[in-house]
Structure formats: structure tokens, C-alpha cells
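Ticket #4471: structure output looks truncated?

Reporter: J.K.
Steps to reproduce: submitted the chain below (632 residues) through the standard prediction queue, then opened the result file.
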Amino acid sequence: MGSCNGKGTEKIQKRVAPLPKGTKNPCHHEIPEVLTTVSLPTIAVLQAPDTSGLRLKTRQFMVPQFLENFIQSAFNTLIETKVPIEGGTLVVSGDGRYFNKEAIQTIIKMSFANGVGHILVGKDGLLSTPAVSAVIRTRKEKPFGGFILSASHNPGGIDEDFGIKYNCENGGPASEEFTKLIYEHSKKISFYNYIDDFPHIDIHTCGETRFSVNRKPAKVSVIDPTNCHVDVLKRCFDFNAIKKFISRKDFSMVYDSMCGVQGPYARKIFVEEFGLDESVLLNGEPKEDFGGPSSAHHGHADPNLTHARALVEKMGLTSTGAPLPGVDVSKVPSFGAAADGDADRNMILGSQFFVSPSDSLAVIAANADAIPYFKRAGGLKGCARSMPTSSALDVVAKEKGIPLFETPTGWKYFGSLMDTAEYVPFLCGEESFGTGSDHVREKDGMWAVLAWLQILAVQNPDESKPLRTVRDIVVDHWRKYGRHYYARYDYEGMSKPLSEKVMSTMGDNAVENSKRDEIECADSFSYQDPVDKEAPLAKNQGMRFLFKDGCRVVFRLSGTGVSGATIRLYLEKYTKDEKEMLNDPFEAVKGLAKKAMEFSKMAEIFNEDKNDDTGRCGLKSEDGICIPSVIT
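Returned output as attached by the reporter:
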């Protein structure tokens, strides 16, 4: 290929066998008789992937050779790690955000130039992140991996965010070792492989484009984006039982795709499979800017109380999750849910009732036998949560005798556990509205919604009896297992050096803070994969303050933002007192927030320097607490 040995930047030409005379291309492209593979010179640019691939401003990806450098660095890494890309099948699709279609065309050209034989693309360039995983895991061609074009829940648009990540042959995100190799290649890359005169592929029509590259067969298949994923979900759930339940006269629902990629999947499942009216779908048309500033969510397809405003208001709630006053409750749907831009996240709501992601995960674990995929295998065999996620899952796992794992943030850390037979079937989740199972190797927003509908169906076998609601199920769960009040404060766009100073200050003071009477442990979280013993120790994954009464305070630097640094503060308060179970969660953790300010010295550190071009410095305070950008 000329790209992996690093020997010069000369052009390398290869003759391409033409299609037989009279052959018509299924996608109506005219394939030239000779295509030319070239290695084009480039200048290395440092490209360091974070917890979810490479995420930057869209305009940065549009800079000539920037995207090309990253893709070639990924191919060089695949070659170095001996992944069989020659003649193999690759998935390339995304969440439909701005620059998605253009990037797909570039990646197609580069993929064939690097030896790929078959490329699968979702119609219109759309595949949700869990659907990419499903395609990799279930297609008969057995893809060796896939490129996902997404910045997840971040806004889309020419002046917003773009991202790309690579998923491996098991359908899961690339390991930390793999992404580090991509970064190392990005530092020394000198040319990339390309096919200049390759035709523009029609990705808006399902079908195949066949041709030959270097006298070897090659093709692009444009596929229905929903089929593989929906087929997998049908194996997890009883669609007939769910369909029967949601047809009850006393049940109604609404689903918000937030103008992201989930729209076609929501239509396929709720309208075509379950027979509901189109009116149950909010923001169901995928848009490059996710609806932009004119949408209720201002183009920020992030399924939480702050951004999913249309859904939250329809469900009779305020942005804090409290019941909206003056609402006619009889007109509020029984069930509401939302997805983010790439459809791997979810938010669950009942009528005037918010279910926190941590509680949602715990409730699914407690009711796992209601889900056919789990029940057929004799129940859950393992579960896991990210470290910042509340301990609600731990209490359920302990009561049921299920092995529990606490991992760093990032779905890739669940991969080895899901690939271990003794822990399958497996359930896992993160506080950042991500929930899933081992059916795919990504978090799956639609899976979580169907899990809830399946639980509701099982708990409502008799239509003649009053509906057991989302609220009923969660409150009963609290009475049995206790309630974990939980909140997350996000401090976005902060100065990177000062954010790092906040974290290092807490690390330096960990021993001293451990001596406080109420503190059981203060440490920097690290993780050794319990399955892959050769995996490197994941260090500095967040500062933990564990209290003797079961409360927790956690600080972490987020790896999903593109501007400045984001400090996330997680607050958790546990109670088994039934009289204390229905309080406002944000009020319940305020005392912990004040203690967190003492531990972190945030106010002092961010206000000591007023000039910093990496992000903002000053932080306003109210009642002794630095005011966050977002509370969820």
C-alpha cells in the first residue's frame, strides 16, 4: 500500500479493472476504466483521541488533510496490529451531523486505497452508534470494524462539533492501547493513501456499487440503517407483549429523537412494529444541526432535563425534574423517553416523574427476569457501572448475588467483561444517561427504553386493573433497596491548566482529607481490568471522597468536550428512611456540594487568574457553592 512502511511520499499507481461492457452500476455511477491509488504527502498534526474518539470543532475536521491524517493513522494502526483489512469489510456511517456525508465519501476513497474490499454504509449515511455495533456483530460479511462519525450528545453544525471513532471486530469501541497507537501514528504520518478519481457514491439509495480495485472485486453496499439493530432488539424483548401493553387505553407515550439519528429507528419500532400513531414521535427527522437554535433543545441533542425541553415540558416537569405547576395531569403521557444525537443515550420519564440514569439502571437490574434475553439465560450473570454512577446498582447486585464491577468512565471498559462467558448475560450503565447489555458492545438508548416498556408490560398483566406507573415501580424500588439521591454539576469551558490544578490539589490533599471524621476514604480512582490482565492500569480516573454514611463526592475531568475543560462533580446521598425518600434530589445533596467546594478549593483556584485563553476562569458562587453550567 505504501503507507505503513513510511518509505517516502512518491505516488503509487495501480490499474483498476473496469466493469464488464454493458454492466450498469446499481447506484447509477459511471465507474472509470482506470482508477488511481496515490499516496499524497501530508504534514503530521497531533490528534489525540479521548474517551470517545477524536472530537473537535467541525471546521477543524474540514481543514484539508486533517480528517485524512486521522483515517490514515487509524489504518496504519490496523496494519501494525495485524487486523486483516486486505479485502475485508468495513462499516462507515454516522449520526447525520454536519460534514457527515462529505467525510463518508473521503473515508470510502481512503478505505479502498488501503486495501478494504467491501464497505457498508447506512442509507443517507445514517447508522446509530448501537446499530453500527449490531451491524459489525451480525452481518454475514463479518466486518473487521467500523468508523462512526459522531460527537455523540454534542451539538452539530458547521460552527459546532464533529467527531470520529473506530470500533473493533467485536462491535465495541477501540481499546485505550489502540487509540494511543493512532495518536503515535498521527505524530509521524507523512502521507496518506487515496483514490483521486473514485466516483461519488450515492448513499441515498439502498443497493450495491460493484467495481474492481487492482483486479480484485470491491463494492459499496448502502443498507437500511434500521434492520440489523431492530432484529437484535427483537431477540432481546417480547415485541408482541410490549405492543399489547402500550395499546392499553390508560397508557400513552411520547418519544423524542431530538432531531438526531434515532428518528428512523423510533419510527420503525413504535409506528411500524407497535402500530402507534406518528404523533408519539417528537423531533423525528434527522437534521445536520439537530434542529439548531430554533429548536426547543437549541440543537443540543442531549437527553437530560436541561436540554430535552420539549419532552420535559410535555411530561409535566420543570428543568429540575419537579412537577410543573398548573398542569392538567390527565393530558400528560404515561411514559416519555429521549435519545441523544447518535442514539446511544436515553432519558426515562413517567408522568411528572424523572428517573435518574443510576436509578434506571438499578431498576432494570432488579427486574431483569422481566426481560426475555436475561430470563432465557437463567438471569443476569454480571453487571457493572462507571465509577461516578451512583451505588444504587451495587445494592441490587449484592441482594441478588450478582458479580458487580466498578469501572472508569467509557463504554470500552465494559468490553472485556461482556466478552467473558461467565458474566453473560450482562448489564451495565453510566450516570451520563447510558445503559446497555451484551447484545451489542455500545450503550443503547432504544434498548433501555424497550427494557422499561417490557418491565411495565410484565407488571401490568391485567388491563382491567389500574396502571402500575413508572413512578410506582421506582418508589417501590426505593422502599426495598433505599434511595440514592444523586446530582451532577458540570463546569464547562473552564481553563485547562486551572482545571488540572483543581484535580492535582485534591490529589495532593487526599491523605489529609482521609483523616476527616466523616470520610472513610479519599483517593484517585484507578482500575485494573479483571479479565484482561495485560491491559494497562487505568490511572487518575477521578477523585473519590467516600463517606462513612454511604454518601459519595466524585470529581472528574471529562473527555467529551471540545472547548476548554469540563469538570464534573458527582454528588450521592443514600437513605433507607421512607420519610426521606420523596425529597427534592438537588436539595438533598446541597450539603455535600458545600463539602465538595472545601475539598476542591475550586472557588479560590478559578478566581486567582482572570486571563487564560484555554477557557474561562472566574466562577460565581451562591450559598457557598460554585454555580455550574448545567445540573443533571
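Triage note (M.O.): checked the attachment and the full C-alpha cell line is present. Residues 1-30 have pLDDT under 50 and may be disordered.
Status: closed, working as intended.
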